[in-house]
Amino acid sequence: MTKTFLQFGCGNMGGAMLKGWLAGGLAPETFTVVDPYLEAAPHGVRLLEAAPAGEDAFDIVLLGFKPQQLPDAAQAVRPFVGPRTLLLSILAGVDLATLRRTFPEARAIVRVMPNLAAALGKSPIALFGDADEAARAETDALMAPLGQAEWLSGEDQMDLVTALAGSGPAFVYRFIDALAEGAAALGLPRDQADRLALSMVEGSAMLAAASEHSPGELARRVASPGGVTQVGIDILDAERRLARLVEDTLRGARDRSAEMTEQARARQQ
Ligand SMILES: NC(=O)C1=CN([C@@H]2O[C@H](COP(=O)(O)OP(=O)(O)OC[C@H]3O[C@@H](n4cnc5c(N)ncnc54)[C@H](OP(=O)(O)O)[C@@H]3O)[C@@H](O)[C@H]2O)C=CC1
Ligand SMILES: O=C(O)[C@@H]1CCC=N1
């Protein structure tokens, strides 16, 4: 039997997931999207400004709005979450206990941490929830068109994984920008620097994903002894500059996720 799918919030992240699901062959008619802001949904998807009146629980409900919007949205979502519902939440910094207290009826609740590459089926996806084996298998099947899913062994890892997998693209985009900006400062026309930096990062990531070698080993293979690359690597590595910068970046983002988790708990009391 075809599963019914209700998605609350279809902005940047929810929209990327919907795109990924449709590209993966899921039938658009099974999706109902509730989003007060969205002007149009992909062909075949039912788009509503507000929760559908007089309808029963859905098989799958996705929470895709901002974490701070949960208290306002909860009342509208609740009628559609019943004992047959697999509830998926992409809300950063809203823990399972808060979700369970808000939606006690749900068959299973799974926190999902993807990123925008879900639209291309290329997202890392961290999962944690109170799903039994059947609900886990259902979740795995649902995530397959969006990318590479992994279940976390503990919810305490979710804040860090949010920083790495969820926020990560932003950090990589800033690095691409910094490469282009640096090259422009050293003399290349900016538009050419942008193109070269982006295609270099695209090719490097594809090569690393396809290679049997680790990124560390690949870096070693690029750097000819006594050549050009090693000088640049030595600057990145001096006093662990790059490693410390990245660790600080992840720590800050992780700590903000933990802080948001506390705030979401407090809002619920
Ligand atoms: N952006 C990303 O890369 C990632 C985001 N996330 C998580 O995804 C969630 C969404 O983030 P993002 O897509 O960036 O945010 P957006 O603001 O782009 O999208 C949220 C959408 O939900 C709509 N909305 C608000 N309230 C409701 C409601 N009650 N019912 C239905 N729809 C509603 C918003 O409308 P309006 O604008 O009118 O409020 C908006 O269109 C967040 O919880 C975030 O933590 C997770 C991983 C990565
Ligand atoms: O910035 C945020 O809060 C969300 C979570 C991960 C990516 N975007």
Q: What is the CATH domain class of the largest domain?
A: Alpha Beta
Separation, N- and C-terminal Cα atoms: 39 Å
% residues in beta strands: 5-15%
- Low-confidence runs of at least 5 consecutive residues: none
Q: Which whole number gives the mean pLDDT?
A: 97
- DSSP helix fraction: 40-55%
CATH superfamily of the largest domain: NAD(P)-binding Rossmann-like Domain
Q: Write the H/E string, N to C.
A: EHEEEHEHEEHEHHHHHH
CATH topology of the largest domain: Rossmann fold
Number of helices: 10
In total, how many beta strands? Answer: 8
| Secondary-structure content class | alpha/beta
Work out the count of structural domains.
2
Judging by the overall fold, what is the CATH architecture of the largest domain? 3-Layer(aba) Sandwich
- Heterogens: NADPH dihydro-nicotinamide-adenine-dinucleotide phosphate, (2S)-3,4-dihydro-2H-pyrrole-2-carboxylic acid
Strand order of the largest sheet: 3-2-1-4-5-6-7-8
Radius of gyration: 21 Å
Global shape: elongated
Describe the fold and architecture.
This protein is of the alpha/beta class. It has 2 domains: 5-153, Rossmann fold, CATH 3.40.50; 168-257, Orthogonal Bundle (ProC C-terminal domain-like fold). 49% of the residues lie in helices and 14% in strands. It has 10 helices and 8 strands. Strands 3-2-1-4-5-6-7-8 form an 8-stranded mixed β-sheet, sandwiched between helices. Helix 2 (70-77) links the parallel strand 4 and strand 5 (86-89). The two termini are 39 Å apart. It binds NADPH dihydro-nicotinamide-adenine-dinucleotide phosphate and (2S)-3,4-dihydro-2H-pyrrole-2-carboxylic acid (A1CAB). (2S)-3,4-dihydro-2H-pyrrole-2-carboxylic acid binds next to helix 5. It is found in: Cytoplasm. Its main location: cytoplasm. Pathway: Amino-acid biosynthesis; L-proline biosynthesis; L-proline from L-glutamate 5-semialdehyde: step 1/1.
